[in-house]
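ugh finaly. both done.
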Amino acid sequence: MPVASLFFQLSAEFKSKSKSKCESKFQSKAKSQKLTLLTAMAATLAITSGCQSIKTANTSHQSGTMMQAQNADQPNKLERFNITGKIGVTTPASDSSGAQGGSAFYAWGQQDDRFAIELIGALGIGKTNIEYDGQTATLVSEKTGTLTADDPETLLKKATGWQAPISQMPYWISGRPAPSDSAPKLDAQNRLISSVNGEWTASFTYKGSDKRPSKISAVQPQGNKVVMTINH
């Protein structure tokens, strides 16, 4: 059974409600099914999860409560998770058109290096399922059919023209820098508040004293932008 089929019942909620009501019901439904989704993914993928050890190092204080982190003490990377939320993408203006944007509700199931994402109202191409098995990424939508690529970033750009740092997201969702990040910064509560990965600069928003971010915003100098809300 394809991993993405775990989210089929979630998509039915979006088709029957308006966008505002849909988002609320989607989030409520997803929270109640969180344990069920995780168990189903474990049975489907049949892979053993692990924990990534936490590396520690000295930190240097920045202005105010901000600190620059170099492998600082951070939360464990989540090897398994099921999250929901909304994602918005903006692309820069070109010679032939102005800046463009789109948004979608999503359900994301992750287990180690494998994941399945279902997008509803998916950035102009309709309902979309994206799967990655650690080696090959597959995207299926009504508009594009089935597409494959070596990595999810190439696949998303091939299908939609959008750019997003998908490979870094499992780390950022966990509240820690990706291994390829540079210049991560922490707040006074030792939470990641910004990090740089190549041309992407990510910033993180938290609810109360939560250790995992509720919102991630990532931008490139050229004008590409991704904003992702997260319901853990």
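ok and the 2nd:
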Amino acid sequence: MSELPALPVTFRPGRTRAVLLTAGAAIFVVITTIALLLEQLSGGERLSFVFTGAILFGVLLMLSRPKVVADESGVTVVNIASRRRLAWAEIIQVNLRPGDPWVFLNLSDGTSLPALGIQPGIAKERAIADARTLRALAEARSTGDLP
């Protein structure tokens, strides 16, 4: 097995996050600029344009939120609208099968938790490497085989 990374380590879809945040900022700027340039709009109408741009930016900001943070005591999975803290012993298996949109964590209670912080969308090789690293960390931490 290769060297495990120093903890804490954060896994997140960096390219996807950059695209979402850039698009959100651009959409907000364009909609706000249009609102300011259209002379026939009233103040309330302009405000509604800006508010709509802010809402769209907020949605894209939420979509860019996912991450997986591994530390000495366990893993924190942050998805779009939820956050869950897991002890290493709770993670039975880390899966990223061909065609999966993101990593799934099989848990000791028999459930499966999606971990959107590792997704092969734009950067497939990076997601595979991150999934392997998280799998190695989970195996080492749950069995006590620490380097």
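summary for the 2nd one i guess: The radius of gyration is 20 Å.
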